[in-house]
Structure formats: C-alpha cells, structure tokens
Amino acid sequence: MAARTVLVTGATSGIGKATAAGLAALGARVAITGRNRARTETAARETRATDWFVADLSSQAEVRRLADEVLTLHPRVDVLVNNVGGYWNTRHVTVDGIEHTFALNHLAPFLLTNLLLDRLRHSAPARVVTVASNAERLGKIDFDDLQGARSYSGARAYNQSKLANVLFTQELARKLAVDEVAAHAVHPGMVSTSFGADDPSSVQRVLVPLLRPFMSTPARGARTSIHAASAPALEGRTGLFLRGSRASATAERGHDEAVAARLWQVSAELVGLR
C-alpha cells in the first residue's frame, strides 16, 4: 500500500480505527474522519494517519464539505473505506429531515463515494470498500416507507440499511466496470465495540453482555476491510461481498438489479445528485 492514499470514515474507534491503523502499517497514507475534533485528532495520532477531518456524516452538507476538503488536499484517492455507521432503536431525523439510520449508514457513503468518483477514477486502479453486515440477509428495501415514517423498528431500519450497502456496492460495480474502480462490500463479523450503545434495544441490553466474551476484537473485525482495500488477489475483481478473505454469496435480495437501480435513483434524489 506504499504511496497509496486511503480515506477511512468513522475511524475514531472500533473497526474503523483498527482499519486505519492496519492500512497505515502496510504503508498507506491514511486519512480518517470523525465527528469529534479531539477524538479524531487522538485517533489520527494513534493510528499514524497523516490527515484527519471532522464531519458529522449524517448531514449532507457535512459530507459535501468533507469531499471538498479531501479533493483539495489529496491529488489521489486510491481507496475509500465507507466504514461509518450506527444503530438507533428509536426513530430520529437528521438536519436534512432524513431518518438517521438510512442517512448515515446508506446515504452518507452513497453521496461521499459519488462526490469522490472522479478522483477515484483518476487514481485507478482504485477501490471502494463499504462495511455492510450479515444483517443484509434480514433486510428489505421498503420503497413505500423507506424512512420508517409510518412504522419504525430499529432492527428493521438497520437491516434495510445494510442491504442498501450491498445493493449500492453491486450497482456501483456495474457502473464502474470499465473504469478500473472496484467496489466491494464486507461483513466484519460480530465485533466487540460500542456500536449501538447510544440507543440500544432491550434485546441488545440483555444479549450483548452475554455475547461479548465470544465477540471478535476490533483488530480482528477490521481484517476483512483491510483485505478488501489492499489484497493483490482482488485485482481485477469487483462487486464482491467478503467475509474474512473469501467472497461469499449475499441473500437473493442483495443482487436484485432492478431494486439496486431503483435504490440508486431514489438515493440520488434524496441527496440532490443528478
């Protein structure tokens, strides 16, 4: 990864921070993002990231500002790791009026990737890695109630967002097939982090403490993202869903081209892209 520039979003803790540290150890020039300035600066120092940016990626204006700052500072973007994400048991809306889970987990990587596409193409061969989850198997894209305005469930919103990550990756891979920009989605496994701690469900409150001894460390969970971002064995391949270092099949919904194309169009409208 020497001389290659990597941007990792949501990298102040957990899998994102471990991913940044792992790629920096491979020689990459790593830039990270976080919401809190002090935590982001500390994480940059601890991961040996060369640059850091402060942005709340649930806000579309913040995503656009981040993209502008990245494009100004970095003449190359060889790898984008869309790691940022979250879980909320109760329904919240962002400053843009978008349901929070959908905004952060799907629309943020969708918008950021699109804003950086020309730079990724210029840096080709390049890669876009989006952290999804096995939860995509439980997800369904409900175009009639995409943001849970009529009926909200934290688990349903999260599962939908992870399926959206997979569908976005598949559609991106198709659109970039001739551009030498690969797109992969990854499942990091069950990892012991503070994920969902701000607004956990009653099931999480009970199960997570019981399961924590059996969960992977963030460093182990980050291995899949690091592999997707750096492995020479993946050169010339795109549109993979990776568990560990192996490509895996998604649920049938995860490769529905019609749904993926419709989701892309709806997402573009929600973030104001042509």
Walkthrough of the structure:
This protein has an eight-stranded mixed β-sheet with strand order 3-2-1-4-5-6-7-8, sandwiched between helices. The longest helix is centred in the middle third of the chain and has 23 residues, at 100-122. Helix 1 packs across helix 8 (223-230), helix 3 packs parallel to helix 4 (100-122) and helix 5 crosses helix 9 (257-271). The protein has one domain (5-271): Rossmann fold, CATH 3.40.50. It is globular. 47% of the residues are buried. The mean pLDDT is 91. The protein has helices spanning 14-25, 37-47, 60-73, 100-122, 154-175, 202-211, 218-221, 223-230, 257-271, and strands at 5-8, 29-34, 51-54, 79-82, 126-131, 181-187, 240-243, 246-247. The chain is of the alpha/beta class and 274 residues long. The protein has nine helices and eight strands. The two termini are 34 Å apart. Strand 4, helix 4 (100-122) and strand 5 form a beta-alpha-beta unit.
Can you say what the CATH homologous superfamily is? NAD(P)-binding Rossmann-like Domain
Mean pLDDT: 91
Beta content: 5-15%
CATH topology: Rossmann fold
Total helical segments: 9
CATH architecture: 3-Layer(aba) Sandwich
Question: What's the main sheet like?
Answer: 8 strands, mixed
Helix content: 40-55%
Are there runs of 5+ residues with pLDDT below 50, and where? none
**Order of neighbouring strands in the sheet with most strands:** 3-2-1-4-5-6-7-8
Q: Give the tally of β-strands.
A: 8
So what's the CATH class?
Alpha Beta
Sequence of secondary-structure elements: EHEHEHEHEHEHHHEEH
Quaternary state reads single chain
Rg measurement, Å: 17 Å
Euclidean distance between termini CA atoms: 34 Å
Q: Helix- and strand-based class? A: alpha/beta
